[in-house]
Every structure is written in C-alpha cells, then in structure tokens.
C-alpha cells in the first residue's frame, strides 16, 4: 500500500515525504502553485518511492519553478530517483543534487 504524500514548508524550501506516485500525487498537484510560491528548493530526501508519474511531476515542477526562480533546485534525490532520471535520459532536463 502506498504511503501518503506529505509536504512541509520551511523558509524557501518545500520538503516532500512519503510516496510520490500516480496514486498519491493528486492532492499535491491541486495545490502546487500555492505550495511552491516563493520557493527556491524542493527537498525530496524523505520520499520513499517515486514512480514514472512522480518523476513526470518533478520534471514539470522543476521547469515551472525555473521560470520564476532561476536558481531553483531539487535536492536529496535517492539513487533510485537518479537512476530513473538517467534511464529516461533526463539528466539535462532535471538536474538533481
């Protein structure tokens, strides 16, 4: 069973935890603009699981935020997430640290 996606906001960083997959991302998607307003970073270190839908969401968020915050970063990517990014050949589209 998927663990609910949760988020917390600290200063200019939004942190995600739980599972980021097709079954859990809708509530976040519906609030994304409000949640990311003024954010410079997205911390995904506490994500347990990311599927292809979750990865697509991360790509979208990164590209969207870079328009208003050119220094926006995604940090805390697990080896699994980095592997997904490499498998889909997205390293130039969504750099993660």
TrEMBL record:
Pfam families the record matches? STAS_2 (PF13466)
Give start and end of each STAS domain.
14-97
User: InterPro entries recorded for this chain?
Assistant: MlaB, MlaB-like_STAS, MlaB_ABC_Transporter, STAS_dom, STAS_dom_sf
What top-level branch of life does the organism fall under? Bacteria
- The name of this protein is Lipid asymmetry maintenance protein MlaB
Which gene is annotated as encoding this protein in its UniProt record? Answer: mlaB
């Amino acid at each position: 069973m998927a663990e609910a996606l949760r988020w917390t906001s600290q200063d200019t960083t939004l942190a995600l935890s739980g599972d980021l997959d097709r079954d859990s991302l809708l509530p976040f998607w519906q609030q994304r603009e409000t949640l990311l307003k003024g954010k410079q970073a997205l911390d995904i270190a506490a994500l347990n699981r990311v599927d292809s839908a979750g990865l697509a969401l991360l790509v979208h968020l990164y590209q969207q935020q870079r328009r208003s915050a050119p220094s926006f970063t995604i940090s805390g990517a697990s080896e699994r997430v980095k592997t997904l990014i490499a498998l889909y050949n997205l390293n130039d589209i969504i750099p993660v640290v």
